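Exam review. A common question shows you a sequence with its C-alpha cells and asks you to describe the fold in words. Practice with the pair below. Do the first one on your own.
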Amino acid sequence: MKVLLLTTGSRGDVQPFLALARGLTEAGHEATVAAPRRFAALSAEVGAEFVGLDDSLFVLQDELVGAGTWAAITAASRARPYLQRWLDDLASLAGTRADVVVFTQKTLGGASIAEKLGVPAIPAQLIPTVPATSAFASPLAPARTPRALARLTWSLADAVERPWRGMVARWRAERLGLASRAPRFASLVAAGGILSAWSPHLLPAPSDWPASAAPLGFWTVPAAPDWHGSPALEAFLDDGPPPVLVGFGSMTHRDPAALAAEVVAGLRRAGRRGLIVSGWAGLGATSAAEDVHVVDAVPFASVLPRVAAIVHHGGVGTVAAAMRAGVPQVVHPFFGDQPFWARRLHELGVAPPTLSSLTADGLAASLAQVDALVPAARRIRAALAGEDGVAAARARIEAAVGGHG
C-alpha cells in the first residue's frame, strides 16, 4: 500500500512520522512523509521518502521569541500569508498516488487531500488533544485548571482550526475543487478513531475514551547499532563518570548566552560533567571545557544510554527517548504541552518537580535528586522493551485500507 504521511511543526512533530514511514517501508509498503522542507536532511538520516513543503512559518516563530504576550496574541493575522503558502504547497499533493493519508490537526488540509484522492483519512496525534475527557485537563490548558473544568479545556484543541476555517474553505474550493465545508478534526476522530503516538506507560487512556483513541506506543527510530560520535565526543564520554545531557530541542531562547551560563554553573555546582546539545536554543554560546562538551546534535537513542540524566524542555519526543533509555529527566518547560509532561514525569517518579525557571541553583538542586530516580526510570525502560508503537499503527493503517477496499 502507498501511505502519505502529513505533518508540520518542530522536529518533535516530524521525527515520529519519519519513524512510522521507515517501519511501513520495512514491512513492504511505500510511505512518504510530506513536512516542512527543513527536515529533508533528517529524513535522509532516517531513511524515509520525503516531500518538502513550505516552512516559512518558522520565520514568524523565530521573530516571536521574547517578543511578549501581545505579540503572540496578534500573530494570527501575520501568520495568514505563511499558512497560505503552506496550503498551496499541500495542494500539490493532490496529484500524489496514495491509498491512505495519515495527518495531524496542525496540517489544516490533511483530510482535504485524502478527500481529493478518494482514500481513507486517518487522524494522528502525538499528544492528547482529542477526544475530551473528565479525567484530566487538556495538555494545552493552564497548569492549575480545576478538576471540575477539565472537560471544558479540551475545546482548546478546536482553536487550532477555528481561525483558519475560512481560509481552508476557500482553498478547498479554489485549489482542490471540493465543497468548501471541510470535516472537523474532532468529527473525523469520533467517526473512525485516531492514531495516538505515545506510550500508555507514559499516559494511559482515560476510562471515558474509546478503544480507537487509546495510545499505541511511541513512534521511534531504533538506535543505530554501529553509531559512533566524533573522536572528541567519544573521548569525553569515556573519560569520566556519565555526564548529564542538556538540550532543549527546537526551542529558542531570547538570551542563549545567559541560559548557557546558568546551565554550566548549575552543572558545576552539582558536581556533574555536562554534554550540551546546542540545538535551536543556541546553547553553543557556552565554551567547551574539560567538564563540558558541546555538540550541535546527537542521536538521542544512541547517546542517552551513556548519560546519567537529561535536562530538556519536555517535548514528548525527548520524553520518549529518555524513557526508552531508562535515564532520569529534569524538565524545564517552555510552553504548550511541555508543563503537562513535566508534571506527568514527576508523578511517574522519573523527574524532580518541574523546573519552571532555569537558574544555576535550581538546576543543581534538581540534579541532586536524579540518582534516587534511577530505579523508577529503569522499571519504565523494561516495560517499554516489549512495546512497538510503529507496528501497532501500521496494523491500524492496514486495517483501514483493507476495509476501504
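Now try the second one, then compare your answer with the model answer below.
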Amino acid sequence: KQNYNSIYKYIQESKKMDSLDGEEFDVIILGTGITECILSGILSSTQNKKILHIDKQNYYGGDTASINLKQLFERNDKPTENLDNGKFGRARDWNIDMIPKLLMSNGELINILISTKVTEYLEFKQISGSYVYHKNGKIYKVPSTEYEAVTSSLLGLFEKNRVKNFLQWVSQYNFENPKTHQGINWEKNTMEEVYYKFGLGNSSQDFIGHAMALYPTDDYIKEPCKECIERIILYSQSVAKFGAGKSPYLYPLYGLGELPQAFARLSALYGGIYMLNTPVSDIQYSEDGKFKSLTIPQGTVKAPIVIADPSYFPEKVKSTGKKYIRCICLLNHKISSTDQRDSLQIILPQNQIGRKNDIYIAALGAEHFVTPKGWNLAIVSTILEDTEGKNPLDEIKPALALLGEIEETFYEVKEILEPKEDGSKDNVFISKSYDAMSHFESMTEDVKDIYKRVMGEDLVIE
C-alpha cells in the first residue's frame, strides 16, 4: 500500500499543469461521489478512456464523503466548546459518513471492488449484528438460517416452523429446476401468494421482506416473487460468506469516504486527471445539442460525454417527490439489547411503527476506526412522510428511543433527485441522489445503468 501511495502521489504530481486549454478527453466526470468515482475507475481501467475528473469541493466523496467531528460541527453551525475541552477526544479520530450505507458481503459493489482490484487498497470489517424492531418495543436478531428461525425469540412456536420451512425452500430454490418450486411460478405468483402458501403471519413477513429482502415499503408483495427470492438468497449467501452468527454486511475501516478515494486512485493509475476545488462554468453544446465543452480556471476542455452528479445540472434533474432525513447521533455507550456488539444495523419495518417507509439505524464505533475509543456513532435515516410544519425528528422518534442517552445530535433533510432524461439526446449522463436505504444495492444499479447508457453495453463484472 505504501508503494501504491507513492505511485499515486507521483502520478498526481506529474499531472499538475497550469493549462488544459483545448485539451480533449473521452469522458469528463463532475463530482467525486461513489457513483462517479466507480464509473471513472471502471472506464479508465477497463475501457482505456481518457478521463478528466473534476469536483468543485476541496475533498473527495461529495455526498458520500466521511468528515471529522470539527467539520461536522461547522457544517451544522454548532458551537465547538466541547471540542476544545476534549470531551469527544480528538476531532480527527472521527470519520463520520454523510451517507450511511453498508456493503452486502456478496453484493454487486463487493463484486465490482474485487473485479477492479480496488480491494487491494481498502480494509473491511464485518458488521457484527443485523436486527429488526418489533412493535412491542424490542429489537431481535434477524434469523437468516433455518436453525436461527427455530431458536429466535422473535417468533412464536408455530411460526418458527413455518419460517424454517420457507427459508429451507428458498435455500433450495433453483429457477431452472421446477422440482424445487413447490408449485410456485416465479414469473406469475406474487410474494403475497408465497407468504400465504407457507402460512406466514405479518411479523414474519415484515422481517423477511424488510430485514432480509431489504424492501423499504410493502409494495413488493403485489409483484412477481422472483426478485424477492433473489434478494433473500443474496442476504443468506452474504451471511454465510463469513460464517453465520453475525450479519451479511461489511464496512470499510475509516469510513465510506475511503471508497470514492480508492476508485479515484485506480483511475489515476490509468492516467485519469483529478482536479479538486475546481469550479465549472460556460458549458457548451454543439449544433446538434450534444455536450461539447466546459470551462475551468485552467482553460476550456472538451469531451463527447460528461457524467455528473445532480448538483452540476440542476436544470436537467427533477424531484422524485421524496425527501429523506439523516440524523447522526454521538453515543458514549453501546446500544442496549444487542449483546454489546461493536457494530450493527437495526431496521424498523414500516408496519411495526405505523409508517409507509422503514427506518434504518447504522451503529459503528472505534473498531471500524470511525470514532475514538469509548464513543459510538448511530446514524438514523428514512424517507420523510409528513413535512408540513412539523419537526422532522418526530418521524424518527421510535429509532431515537432505541439509542438511549444521546450526547449530541446532527440532522439534515434533503430532496431526492433523478435525471429528467436518459442522456442520449445531449450526452449528459446524470446520477441519481443517494436514497435513505442502508445498503449500496440501489447505487450499484445506478452505476450499471449509467455505464450501459454511456457504453451501449452491459457492465460485465467478473
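Model answer, second protein: The chain has 14 helices and 20 strands. The radius of gyration is 23 Å. Full marks require stating both points clearly.
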